[in-house]
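ok trying again, last paste got cut off:
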Amino acid sequence: ALCGPKGVPDAGRRAVRGGTTASQVVLGGQRIAVRRPRARSLSEGELALASFEWAASADPLDAATMAAIAAGVSTRRYASTQEPVPASHRPRAASKSAVSRRFVQLSQEQLAQWLARPLGDLDLPVVMIDGMHLRDRVILLALGIDAQGNKHVLGLREGSTEATRVVAALLSDLVERGLDAQRMRLWVIDGGKALRRAI
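nice, full thing came through this time. structure:
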């Protein structure tokens, strides 16, 4: 489309063909190697190919990775869940270490966005706080319950114990994100002194 029909002179063309180059596209939830055609502008250098940029987008690959891992597929078995691709194309980045790195990066980004979302629009008459023990660490979880009984995970904090300062940091974060500190509400805790003091 950029260069016009091959072998047909055209004085008004914007670009000329510049051969091909090794590239990758996402197909069936995996990266495969392809030869990408190149188009060189008569005045601006190489031009981007909109169709290739769409095909090389990481979004379908990211979505496939997150869906597979969330469904319980191990990184070792991830390759077996992918759609078949033509035998002439060599899959790329299907190793368990590449899948693991991609999942860690994506989950970190999603968790950061999720834990930064505003809470001002939520009407929460009840908030529960509890600690989950994982080996020598404690994950504090704040769970809000709205008037319709729907649960909303509000925030997380990691610490070595259910210390008052860790709980206070969690609560301060919730208030900064819009939880109304002046509203009367029911706080549900397990009786831990640190939780009670922080609240």
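cool. Residues 88 and 145 are 54 Å apart (CA to CA). The chain has two domains: 15-115, 126-198.
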